[in-house]
Amino acid sequence: MTRHWMEAIARLRDSAEPYVLITVIGVQGSTPRESGSKMLVTAGEAFDTIGGGHLEFAAIEHARQLLLAGKNSQALEHFPLGARLGQCCGGRASLLFECFAARGPQVVLFGAGHVGRALAPLLAGLPLRLEWVDSRAAEFPQTVPEGVRMRLLEEPEDAVHEAPPGSYFLVMTHNHPLDYAIAEAVLKRGDAGFLGMIGSRTKARRFQMRLEQHGYPQEVIAQMHCPIGLSEVPGKRPLEVAISVAAQVIARYQQDVPARQMREGVEWAALCSEGSCSDLPENAKT
After folding, report:
1. pLDDT tens digits for 144-159?
2. pTM for the full model?
3. What are the residue boundaries of the XdhC- CoxI domain, all occurrences included (predicted)?
């Protein structure tokens, strides 16, 4: 079982699970651990230690509040180790909390055919959580890109019901009836972040007419993007289609998560209130 914070980071990055890294960056007087000590906290686990006791308990509680906010963030908190924390060290610890939220939206890619195999590595390099679904084990490559969750399902549409709200669904299976079943399941949910399907305009129109016959209103049917991909990125080769689809996914998540949020950080001076950084090196205060 992983207990060291560095090993935990490697595992959590692969699974795209959010976490908070806590670092002791300044101490005064007697404290449980020295500057530089770290621990890592997830919603249900803690790895390594910053000394235990009520300080660690308070730090874990604060970290999990940051996880609930669901945003990348940094915060500096100062803890006097006295009566308030039930510790008699009498010192003072400054802790840096770095919250790494879950990577982007969940993307469920249906189909491990030529386009799916070209698309999966492109999506794996983006800030997304990728689940790759097919019912045919032989179609998956021997080596799956790092961070991709491969799922072999006899009924691929089951993955629709298990996906979190706001997920992106990319439908490109080997079977038109299966494509329709997946698309209808997504539209029936009503909470997808994006639905795209590979195919011709003729296929799109046929599916639209069938959905109309099943009572779906036009505003719901319009949520299905078929043919999938950006018209500005043409081409019929698998890689060309994959690049066009990846470009459309990028455009969508950039729209959902403004670039401002992706660039935001915290200036060091903003982390320190007046007089609170006296225990830090001089060159860290500027």
Report:
1. 887 788 999 999 999 9
2. 0.65
3. 13-79
